[in-house]
Amino acid sequence: MRAVHFLPLSLLLLTVAFILLFLDRKFSKEFRDFHGEIWHYEDGTTDRLAKSAQNRIQSTACKIQLRNFLHEIAFKRHWPVKEVAKNCDDLFEVPSAANALKFRPFSPGTSHVKILFLLQLNGRDSRQLRRLFRSLFLPRHFYFVHVDSRQEFMLKEMLKVEESLRAEGFANFRVAKRRMATIWGGSNLLDLFLWTVAETLGETNSKWAQWDYIVNLSETDMPILSVEELEQNLAENRGFSFLKSHGQNTSAFLQKQGLHFHFMQCEQRMWRVAERRNLPVNLRLDGGSDWVVVHRDLALFAISDSLLPSQMRLFFSSVLLPLETFFHTLALNSANFCRRIVRRNLRFTNWRRRQGCRCAPLKSVVDWCGCSPLAVSANELGKLSLNHSQSKFHFFGRKFDSAVDISPIAFVERQNLRFRADLLPSQSAVFSAHWLNLFSALSPSDVPFGLNAELLTLFTSSIAHFMPSNNFVFQRLHDFHIYREFSAAPPQTIATFSVAFGHTNYLIEALIGQKRDSFATSSPTDFEVIDEGIRFLFNAEEGIEIGLDFDHKEEIFRTFPPLLSPSSKFTLKWRWVRLGIAADGRAKRTSPPAELLFRGPNGTVFHKMSVPSYNSFYGTQFAQFEFGRFSGVSPGVWSVALHANNSLPTLPMIASLSFPVFPDPSLSSEWTEQRIVRLIDEFFTVRDFCSVTEHLATQKKHLLLGEPISDFANCSELPWSTFFFDEKSVFPPFGRWAAENAFISQH
Questions:
Q1: Which terminus of the chain is less hemmed in, N or C, by CB atoms within 10 Å?
Q2: Within the chain, how many helices (H) and strands (E) appear?
Q3: What is the rounded distance in angstroms from the CA atom of residue 185 to the CA atom of residue 354?
Q4: Which residues cross the membrane (predicted)?
Q5: Is 309:330 a contact under the CB 8 Å cutoff?
Q6: Exposure of 257 by Cβ count < 10 A (0-12 exposed, 13-18 middle, 19+ buried)?
Q7: Rounded to an integer, what is the distance from CA 597 to the centroid of its chain?
């Protein structure tokens, strides 16, 4: 009998225990997730990601931020925990009427749309930006300029533009005082966009709050069609936001976006810190381009305290590339906006994913891989034509890069200014020329990657020894530019510096080029390598090139000339022509494996380096080398030899290159100034000097100068000089200054 009563009692106790266990799991789940995920690292993925980030983070502040960030993840503070009302359940595609856009030709006086242009600026190409402003600027629109917090030179350039416009009576151009490090994929790209909306719409008594649309642009964007046509067509579709979608496969898109991971921005980097266990089940996720055209109503909704946007702002604070998904998802899940989306972003983008999707360029800023478009070249001009752009509803294009090809900029400029032809620059001697500042004494700490300001000053002071008279004493380096006479021309450099003669200072510019005979590659012609059945022909005409700040997408050097010191990091590149494809169809490589042999100034072998095969749209193969990783690197003339890496007992040499390495200016050295001058003379040539008039120099806020040196030409009369009048880069153009005064707007 006791056994009969024992079984129900046991079942009862087991049932109670199970219920208590269930309740314990329910009410302590957040704590145990936090315990396992964060402190004891029981989850392998989180353990690996969090510890990896912890080990690589440098600053104490960032380590504390990571700890707090992981704590928030554990308690789901980056998760929209509240149930958001489901809207548009039956709407997975925008109504066809919204997407069946019809281009409306410009009709004067019919548009009353005001646009806020958010300029998200990086880099140093202030001349190309002024050219963009010439095409984009109209008094009735607003121009809100954010300059990356790391770019001091560009900030000063944009403040000059703001000051010049205010002097002309225009108050619709503003440089933001708040600045962020807008890295690729950064969470603060969304912060910047939303802050701009709040900042401008918060000025209720200001004209800045009167815009109808916000359009974000970068320094490499250009209008393809006129601003007047943009106004016309936004007015025809008033109330709609233009958000280009990824296509049909949402799951694949979100996977590529890394949405299944938590990312944290710190130290100018996006750290992948944890796996995102789940995605919001009560939101339909969508995304596409982060270059958007957002109507005022949707922008206001995005910064409001309503449940949906406030929850989404929380969720997207730990998302990589948040601007590519935030507005798409917000609009699609709102009853007020899901039917007010056009799945286009009004832009032509020069995608070439085989070349533009690379991991290497992003390793320094993000724990992820990504894609970026390539610069538009003359080959793409057909895609920018008037009829094609109107039919495709393309009002803007990206990317445009004067360092790659300046002709597409001139092409779209003629097109977008056809209703304001008086602003078109004339076909002058410098119409196809371009200058890019690499160093400014007004922002001495802001220099491009790989460039040493002290070495640049040492180089320029040595260049001064090549002046016709030896009685001048070098004073100071003011500016250093890359100069191209036209896109395909070899790059040259222009040093702007002051010298003293007695008690008088003079401002000088020097045009400097490389001696190709010294940098020349020695190579047999028609050198062919056969590797695994594939034939590769070495491009002997281009040979081996050496440089700094290598752009993996465009495969060009962004910094010139290659001034190397014993601690420099540099890149060597060369090209191949693939003559055939292997029988098994393995075509995903455009170069064979190779070997590099470095020799120091004494001629002995310093280092051997294997170079793997590479797949390049242009047939380029490259190798990055860092002197700083080795000891015993001495200044002088170095050489590198490229060898075929195959099964032959002796690797045949394909080509070789000699290059100079200068002493480190920050360290004491046995090198005298005369030795440095001789090294420069071996590899470089000073093609011309000119002097600057006192009138121009004082306006540029240099030291007061004496009269121009009689032996030198006036810089304002030489087309290569940075002081020569460059109409296409003059902004603002209002007032039409005389040529000699207009340089204020181009420097």
A1: N
A2: 19, 30
A3: 20
A4: 6-23
A5: yes
A6: buried
A7: 33
Per DSSP, 288 falls in state: B
Query: pTM of the predicted model, to two decimals?
Result: 0.88
Report yes or no on 234 lying in a domain.
yes
Q: How many residues does the chain have?
A: 747
Distances (CA, A) of 689 to 162, 435, 472, 560, 710: 33, 17, 13, 19, 12
Reading the block at residue 274, the tokens are 């944890």
Task: Provide the CATH number for the domain around residue 592.
Answer: 2.60.40.1930
Residues 573 and 502 reside in one and the same domain: no
> Number of folded domains in the chain?
3
Same domain, 541 and 560: yes
Range in 13-17, 251-255, 651-655 with the lowest mean pLDDT: 13-17
Q: Cα(459)–Cα(329) distance, rounded to whole angstroms?
A: 53
CB atoms within 10 A of CB 252: 11
Residues 141 and 239 in one domain: yes
Per-residue pLDDT band at 310 (split at 50, 70, 90): very high
Task: Mention every residue, 6+ apart, whose C-beta is less than 8 A from residue 721.
Answer: 494, 509, 511, 690, 715
User: Strands (DSSP E) along 219-333, which ranges?
Assistant: 222-223, 241-242, 261-266, 269-275, 293-295
Give rounded-to-5 percent helix, strand, coil for the chain.
Answer: 30, 25, 45
28: in domain: no
CATH number for the domain harbouring residue 318: 3.90.550
Q: Which residue in 114, 119, 116 sits closest to 130, CA to CA?
A: 119
Residue 625 predicted with pLDDT over 50:
yes
Instruction: Identify the domain containing residue 709 by its residue range.
Output: 434-514+671-734
Helix residue spans in 273-369 (DSSP H): 296-302, 307-316, 326-332, 353-356
Residue 504, number of CB atoms within 10 A of its CB: 12
CA gap 73, 368 in Å, rounded = 20
Domain final position from 394, 423, 452: 423
577 confidence band (pLDDT: 50, 70, 90):
very high
Half-sphere exposure of 715 (CA within 13 A, CB side): 27
Take residue 343 and report the two structure tokens written for it.
């799945």
- Within this chain, do residues 720 and 649 fall inside the same structural domain, yes or no? no
Task: Give yes or no: residues 497 and 552 share one domain.
Answer: no
Q: Is residue 22 part of a domain?
A: no
Pair type for strands 504-514 and 684-691: antiparallel
pLDDT-based confidence at 646, cuts 50/70/90? low
Report pLDDT for 176. 98
Residues 502 and 522 in one domain: no
Characterize the bridge pairing of strands 504-514 and 492-501: antiparallel
Tell which residue, 618, 154, 130, 128, has the closest CA to residue 406: 128
Answer for the pair 115, 203: CB distance below 8 angstroms, yes or no: no
Q: DSSP letters along 359-400, please?
A: SGGGTTTBSS-EE-PPPP-GGGGGGGSHHHHHHHT--EEE--
Q: Which amino acid is at 218?
A: S
The tens digit of pLDDT for each residue in 436-475 reads 999 999 999 999 888 899 999 999 999 999 998 778 899 9
Residues 572 and 708 grouped into a single domain: no
Q: Which amino acid is at 28?
A: S
Distances (CA, A) of 620 to 8, 481, 554, 615: 79, 26, 10, 8
* Boundary residue ending a domain (599, 634, 661): 661
Q: What is the spatial distance between Cα 747 and Cα 702, in angstroms, rounded to a whole number?
A: 13
Residues 682, 493: Cα–Cα separation, whole Å: 17
Location of structure tokens 């701009």: 196
Same domain, 373 and 468: no
Q: In terms of DSSP H, where are the helices of 432-529?
A: 453-463, 516-519
What is the mean pLDDT of the segment spanning 509-520?
Answer: 84
Tokens of 463: 């260049």
Query: Rounded distance, CA 576 to CA 654, Å?
Result: 11
Residue type, position 674, single letter: Q
Our CA angle for 418, 221, 301, nearest 5°, is 105
The answer as to whether 18 is a domain residue is no
